[in-house]
Design a protein that fits this description.
Its main location: membrane. This protein is mainly alpha-helical. Helix content is about 85%, strand content about 0%. It has one domain: Up-down Bundle (Alpha-lytic protease prodomain-like). α2 packs antiparallel against α3.
């Protein structure tokens, strides 16, 4: 019995170590991508790119918090998931503010900066999703991190579509349209993570 318990503990410790390593990698990728996208957004004047950059900042904070609670109880992880839903909601509010500002100050983004940043962002998001996919059905901590990463891939594809739209039409409206779509996605994701965290808080402590 003692041997079985020791083996199970070793497996659990190895799993937590692996989870921490994966979260540390995706955190570093998101922080780097955030800096890239904000710089490109300022250069290009793109609303969708800035929205994606703000999302990456929220994800960086999310992964940092997830990393801190690896191995904690379900109750602790569920409380952290509530924080994650709040961070996603803040990203949505930031997107809404940016959209309103762009509607008042219309402009056509610079395609070259927007397109290059969109491609690099999508590639980084796909790497993060690949790293987190094995944990998508795990506890609320890793599952919510995967949820953020899946949103990032959708956001990456949307920003790339915005870049193509700007190139095709020579106008800023595709960029704003994508920013509105990202806003809807953020709100939907915040609600999903919020519900999952509530389910975790209602579960018996163990």
């Amino acid at each position: 019995m003692s041997r079985d318990c020791c083996e199970k503990q070793l497996v659990a410790d190895a799993l937590r170590k692996q989870e921490r390593r994966v979260l540390a990698i995706v955190l570093a990728i998101n922080l780097t991508t955030f800096v890239l996208m904000v710089a490109a957004a300022m250069h290009s004047g793109s609303s969708s790119l800035l929205s994606g950059g703000l999302d990456n900042l929220g994800d960086t904070l999310t992964y940092a918090v997830s990393l801190a609670v690896v191995g904690s109880t379900l109750q602790v992880k569920s409380r952290v998931a509530l924080l994650k839903s709040a961070l996603i909601l803040l990203a949505a509010i930031a997107v809404a503010i940016q959209i309103a500002w762009r509607l008042a100050h219309p402009a056509t983004p610079i395609f070259a900066s927007l397109g290059i940043a969109a491609l690099l962002n999508l590639a980084a998001n796909l790497v993060c999703l690949r790293l987190l996919t094995p944990y998508r059905h795990g506890d609320v901590n890793l599952a919510s991190a995967w949820e953020c990463s899946r949103n990032d891939v959708g956001e990456g594809l949307a920003v790339l579509a915005a870049a193509l739209g700007v190139w095709l039409f020579g106008n800023g409206w595709p960029d704003l349209l994508v920013a509105v779509a990202l806003l809807a996605m953020f709100l939907r994701s915040a609600l999903r993570v919020f519900r999952a965290s509530l389910d975790g808080l209602k579960a018996p402590a163990g």
